[in-house]
Design brief:
Length: 959
C-alpha cells in the first residue's frame, strides 16, 4: 500500500469512520514525516517496532470489514432488538430507575463530562470535584459516617475493600471474617474468591447467638431476602473483640431507616445505582464507601478534599493520602486507583435534583408498593420469608416457584427464582400498580385486590430514621429544571475536557470518544437490562459480548477474553488470580514470587500483593529497558518459587524493548507465566500482539485503546485476555447466563459484582472496532506513533527526550526531561504544568514514571494544528523560563510561578507584577477569542492535607 494512514487530503471530505477518527490526513502526514525524517509511515513504524515481533499477515480475520457509522448503528439496533423487553423485578442490588432527563442530557450524554480526565490537575477540574464533593456529602449524610470516598467500582468489590480495611484497622488476632448469610449472593462469591488469595477465612453466619471472634463482620442492610434487622448488638460484640463492622446498605432505604453509623457500623459500602443510573446489564455504576472518624487514612480509592488556592479562596482537590494508593507499590493495601466518576456525578445530581424530601418520597412510594404486594399475597395465605422489609418480598410457594417465574415472564416481568419453593419480587421507583397486578396474576391471584400499602409496616419503630440528612443548601437550591440545567452547565464550564482541546497525557490515551460509538449506551434495550436476567432475554447482549471477545482475542494474540473486570486494576488482578489458579491446579503451591520491573505502574505490585504473591523488583537500565542480566539473576534466585513476571509493552518509558522475546523465554524456561500489562496497547495494535511476545495473560484498557470515555476518572473496563491453558481460571460468576465463552469455559471465581462487568458501555468499544476494522486499528496505531515522534523531534532541542528506541524513535508517547530546566532556571515541572493552563492546555502526565518529567501522549485523534499549538506553547514556556534565568523577571514573581491566572487576577485590584496582564492570560494571540479561564489559582495541596475536609463547605466559605 502507498500509505498507512487515511488517504484523504486535509481539504477533502472524509467518507469513512477511520477518516473521522484519525486527526491527520495525507497532507499533514507528509509534513510530519518530513520533520521526523522518514519517507513513509510504514518505514517509521516498522523501524520503531522491533522486526522480531511484527505480526504476520492473516488470511482471514474475525473482525469484519469496517462498517460505516450508519451500518454500525443498524447492526447495534439489530443486536438490541434481540434483547427481550421486560420489567426487571429481580433485585439483588440492581433496580430500574428513572434518570431525570436533565441529568441524562447534560451529564451522561455531554462530552464536557464524559471526555474529561481524572482530576489530577485540580485547577481545571473544579466542576467535577464539586460534583464529587456532593457525592461524598450525600453518602456520609445517608450512612451516618464521617468520611466517604469519591466512589468505588461496584457494591461487591466495595465489600471486599471494606473487609481489607477491617483487617488493617482491627486489633483482633485472627484471620476470620464473618459474613452475613443474608448477604447478596454475588457478594459472597466475590468475598470467598478474594479472601482465599490473601489468607482470610470467611465464616458465614446468621449472627444468632454468640458472635465468633473475628477481625471483622459484614452485614447486609436490608438483607438479600429483604429482611431488615437491628445489628447494633452484633456490632457491640464485634467491637468488644477488637473487630470492625462493615455494613452494605441501600441508600434509598436509608432515607427511611436508621443509618449504619447509628447502629455501630465502622464502614458502610454499597451502590448508588438506583439514584438515576441505568441498569446497563450490570454497570457501570458507582459503588460507595464511608468510614467512621479515625479511619480516613485507611480509605482505598480516591478522596476529594477542600483546600485553598494561592489567594486563600476555597478550592477542591484530590487528597494526598488516597489520591494514588498504588504509589505504595508492594506496600499498597488496595489496587483500586480509579473511581466511577461519571456515574457518581449522576447519582449525586439525582440527590441534588430531588433533595431529601424528594428522595424520602420516592423511598416511601417504593416501600408502600412492596407492602401492598405483600398484603395481597398474605390475603391468599401465602407466607413471606420476612415480615420486615423495604422493597423486597420473598414468598413461599412450595413446588410452584418455577411456574410463577415463567408466568411472570410470559407477562413481561422478571422475578427471582430462589429455589423450588421460593420466589423473590423487588419493587423500585418505576413500579406501577399495573405491574403489581400483573405479578399477582403470575402467582395465580388474578382477582387479588391491591390494598393500600404502608411504608416499613413490619419494621421495628426503633429502626425508623428520625434525623435530618442532605441539609446542605446544594441539595435544596436546584428544584426546577432551569436551575438544574444551569448548575450543571456552570460546573462543566469550570472544567477542561476533550471538547475544549487536547489532553496530552502519557500512559492515559485520551482519544476521541465518537458520538456514534456513544449512541447505543442510552438505548433502553441496552440500558434497562438487569445483569441477572435470563439468557433468553439477553441474547443480543450475549451475541455482542461474544463478538467483542473474539475481536479482542484476535488483535492481542490470545485464545480467550473475559469482559468481567470493570477497571484496569481489576483486570490485572483477574489475570494474576488466573496464574495463581493455574499453579495451584498443577500442584505448584510454592510458586508465589512475582517479578516486576522497577519502572512498572504501581498497580502492578499492588495487584500482585492482592493475588497473594510476593513482589521481587527487577532493575531497569539507563535506556529504560528491563535489565536482562538482573532479570536472569532474579529468575535463578527464585526459580523454584517463580510464579510470574509482569511487564508493560511498550515499556512504561514509552520504548519498544528489543529483548522482549528473550525476557519472556527466560521466564517460561523457569516455569513461570508472563503477564503483559496492556496499558500501552495503542502503540502496538495491528503491528504486534501480546500473545506472540510470549504473553500468557494481559489486561486491556477499553477506556484507553478502544474508545470508552474516561468520564472524569471512570468508567473503565479492563478485560483480561489469556492463552488457552489459563482460560479455565478466568473470572466466572454465579449468575452468568452462559458458562461457555468464545475461548472456553471460565471457572476462576468473580472479580466484579456483575457477570459481564460494566456491560452497558461495551457497545462503545464494539462500535469502535466495527467501524475501524482491522486495518483501521492498525492505522490508528501508526497515527499515534507518528504524532508522538513528531512532538518528540520538534521539542527535543528545547527539552531532552529521556528515552528512545531504534533510530531515536519513541512509541506512542515521549518523556520530556524538565530537570535540566529546573537546574538552569529554577522553573519546576509544576510551574510548566500550571502555565500550560494559561495557554489553554491540560498538562501532560507529571513526574511519572520519572520525577521531574512530563510524559506526552497525543493520540491519533488530534490534528496537526492542535499538535503544533501544543509544541508552540511548550517552546514559548521554555523562553519564559529562560527570561527568569536571565533576570528579566524575578524568580518569585513571574508568569510561571504565578500560573494559572484567573480572570479575577487581571481584573480586580492594581496590577503589581513585573509582566503584563496580556502576558499573564493571553501569551498567544489565538487565545483572545477562545480563552479557557480557570476558576481558581494554584491550589495549596499541603494545606488541604493538613486540614482534611471532604464534604460540602458552607456557602459562606465562598462569600
Amino acid at each position: 500500500m502507498s500509505t498507512l494512514l487515511p488517504s484523504r487530503t486535509d481539504a477533502g471530505t472524509p467518507a469513512v469512520f477511520v477518516d473521522r477518527h484519525i486527526g491527520i490526513g495525507a497532507d499533514a502526514q507528509a509534513r510530519m514525516l518530513e520533520v521526523v525524517g522518514y519517507d513513509s509511515v510504514e518505514a517509521l513504524v516498522e523501524t520503531a517496532v522491533p522486526a522480531s515481533i511484527h505480526v504476520q499477515a492473516r488470511a482471514t480475520s474475525a473482525i469484519p470489514t469496517a462498517a460505516t457509522e450508519a451500518e454500525a448503528l443498524a447492526e447495534l439496533r439489530e443486536l438490541a432488538s434481540a434483547n427481550r423487553s421486560a420489567r426487571p423485578m429481580i433485585g439483588l442490588g440492581y433496580y430500574d430507575t428513572f434518570t431525570p432527563s436533565v441529568i441524562a442530557r447534560n451529564v451522561l450524554e455531554n462530552p464536557s463530562w464524559y471526555t474529561a480526565y481524572t482530576p489530577y490537575q485540580p485547577e481545571i477540574s473544579q466542576g467535577r470535584l464539586e460534583a464529587l464533593i456532593n457525592f461524598q456529602t450525600m453518602v456520609t449524610d445517608l450512612t451516618g459516617l464521617a468520611t466517604a470516598n469519591a466512589s468505588m467500582l461496584d457494591e461487591s468489590t466495595a465489600v471486599v475493600e471494606g473487609m481489607l480495611v477491617a483487617r488493617r484497622a482491627s486489633k483482633a488476632k485472627t484471620d476470620v471474617f464473618l459474613v452475613d448469610v443474608d448477604a447478596l449472593p454475588q457478594t459472597k462469591a466475590l468475598l470467598h474468591h478474594r479472601a482465599a488469595a490473601v489468607g482470610i477465612r470467611i465464616l458465614e453466619t446468621s449472627f444468632e447467638g454468640e458472635v465468633p471472634e473475628a477481625f471483622g463482620a459484614f452485614v447486609q442492610y436490608p438483607g438479600a431476602t429483604g429482611r431488615i434487622w437491628d445489628f447494633s448488638a452484633v456490632a457491640e460484640s464485634v467491637h468488644a473483640a477488637g473487630g470492625l463492622v462493615v455494613a452494605a446498605a441501600d441508600l434509598l432505604a436509608l432515607t427511611l431507616l436508621r443509618s449504619p453509623g447509628a447502629l455501630g457500623a465502622d464502614v458502610a459500602v454499597g451502590t448508588t445505582q438506583r439514584f438515576g443510573v441505568p441498569l446497563g446489564f450490570g454497570g457501570p455504576h458507582a459503588g460507595y464507601m464511608a468510614v467512621r472518624a479515625g479511619l480516613e487514612r485507611q480509605l482505598p480509592g480516591r478522596l476529594v478534599g477542600v483546600s485553598q488556592d494561592a489567594v486563600g479562596a476555597p478550592a477542591y482537590r484530590l487528597s494526598l493520602q488516597t489520591r494514588e494508593q498504588h504509589i505504595r507499590r508492594e506496600k499498597a493495601t488496595s489496587n483500586i486507583c480509579t473511581a466511577q466518576v461519571l456515574l457518581a456525578v449522576m447519582a449525586a445530581m439525582y440527590a441534588v435534583y430531588h433533595g431529601p424530601d424528594g428522595l424520602r418520597a420516592i423511598a416511601t412510594q417504593v416501600a408502600r408498593k412492596a407492602d401492598a404486594l405483600a398484603s395481597a399475597l398474605r390475603s391468599y395465605d401465602l407466607d413471606l420469608v420476612s415480615e420486615a422489609f423495604f422493597d423486597t418480598v420473598r414468598v413461599h410457594v412450595p413446588g410452584r416457584a418455577q411456574d410463577v417465574v415463567d408466568r411472570a415472564r410470559d407477562r413481561g416481568y422478571q422475578l427471582l427464582w430462589i429455589d423450588d419453593a421460593t420466589v423473590g419480587v423487588s419493587v423500585d421507583e418505576t413500579t406501577t400498580d399495573a405491574d403489581l397486578a400483573a405479578v399477582l396474576d403470575a402467582f395465580g391471584l388474578a382477582s387479588a385486590e391491591l390494598p393500600e400499602g404502608e411504608a416499613l409496616r413490619g419494621v421495628d419503630g426503633a429502626l425508623h430514621r428520625d434525623d435530618d440528612f442532605l441539609t446542605h443548601p446544594v441539595f435544596h437550591a436546584h428544584r426546577s429544571e432551569t436551575a438544574m440545567m444551569r448548575y450543571l452547565k456552570t460546573l462543566a464550564d469550570r472544567d477542561y475536557a476533550l471538547d475544549r482541546g487536547m489532553i496530552p497525557l502519557g500512559s492515559c490515551t485520551m482519544k476521541l470518544n465518537a458520538a456514534t460509538e456513544m449512541a447505543a449506551v442510552s438505548w433502553p434495550e441496552f440500558s434497562r437490562v438487569h445483569p441477572f436476567a435470563p439468557e433468553a432475554d439477553v441474547r443480543g447482549y450475549l451475541e455482542m459480548i461474544e463478538q467483542l471477545e473474539r475481536w479482542l482475542a484476535e488483535v492481542t494474540g490470545y485464545d480467550a477474553v473475559s469482559l468481567q473486570p470493570n477497571a484496569g486494576s481489576q483486570g490485572e488482578l483477574a489475570g494474576l488470580l488466573a496464574i495463581r489458579g493455574y499453579h495451584l491446579a498443577n500442584g505448584d503451591l510454592e510458586r508465589t514470587v512475582c517479578l516486576i520491573p522497577s519502572s512498572a505502574h504501581g498497580t502492578n505490585a499492588a495487584s500482585a500483593i492482592l493475588a497473594g504473591m510476593k513482589v521481587v523488583v527487577v532493575a531497569c537500565d539507563e535506556a529504560g529497558n528491563v535489565d536482562l542480566g538482573d532479570l536472569r539473576a532474579k529468575i535463578a534466585q527464585h526459580a523454584a518459587e517463580l510464579s510470574a513476571l509482569m511487564i508493560t509493552y511498550p515499556s512504561t518509558h514509552g520504548v519498544y524493548e528489543h529483548d522482549v522475546l528473550d525476557i519472556t523465554r527466560a521466564v517460561h524456561d523457569a516455569g513461570g507465566q508472563v503477564y503483559v500489562d496492556g496499558a500501552n496497547l495503542n502503540a502496538l495494535l495491528g503491528f504486534a500482539r501480546f500473545g506472540d511476545l510470549g504473553g500468557d495473560v494481559s489486561h486491556l484498557n477499553l477506556h484507553k485503546t478502544f474508545a470508552i470515555p474516561h468520564g472524569g476518572g471512570g468508567p473503565g473496563v479492563g478485560p483480561v485476555a489469556a492463552k488457552a491453558h489459563l482460560a479455565p481460571f478466568l473470572p466466572s460468576h454465579p449468575f452468568s447466563q452462559r458458562a461457555e465463552h468464545a475461548g472456553g469455559v471460565f471457572d476462576g471465581g468473580p472479580v466484579s459484582a456483575a457477570p459481564h462487568g460494566s456491560a452497558g458501555i461495551l457497545p462503545i468499544s464494539w462500535a469502535y472496532v466495527r467501524m475501524m476494522g482491522a486495518e483501521g486499528l492498525r492505522q490508528a496505531t501508526a497515527a499515534a506513533v507518528l504524532s508522538a515522534n513528531y512532538i518528540a523531534v520538534r521539542l527535543r532541542e528545547h527539552y531532552p527526550v529521556l528515552y528512545a528506541g531504534e533510530g531515536g524513535l519513541v512509541a506512542h508517547e515521549c518523556i520530556l526531561d524538565l530537570r535540566p530546566l529546573k537546574e538552569q532556571t529554577g522553573v519546576s515541572v509544576d510551574d510548566v504544568a500550571k502555565r500550560l493552563i494559561d495557554y489553554g492546555f491540560h498538562a501532560p502526565t507529571m513526574s511519572f514514571p520519572v520525577a521531574g518529567t512530563l510524559m506526552v501522549e497525543p493520540t491519533e485523534s488530534e490534528d496537526l494544528a492542535e499538535l503544533d499549538r501544543f509544541v508552540d506553547a511548550m517552546i514559548a514556556i521554555k523562553h519564559e523560563a529562560l527570561a527568569v534565568a536571565a533576570g528579566e523577571w524575578p524568580a518569585d514573581d513571574n508568569p510561571l510561578v504565578n500560573a494559572p491566572h484567573t480572570a479575577e487576577t487581571v481584573v480586580v485590584g492594581e496590577w503589581e507584577h513585573p509582566y503584563s496582564r496580556e502576558t499573564a492570560v493571553y501569551p498567544v494571540r489565538s487565545l483572545i477569542r477562545g480563552k479557557y479561564w480557570p476558576p481558581v489559582r494554584r491550589i495549596d495541596q499541603a494545606y488541604g492535607d493538613r486540614n482534611l475536609v471532604c464534604s460540602c463547605p458552607p456557602p459562606e466559605a465562598f462569600a
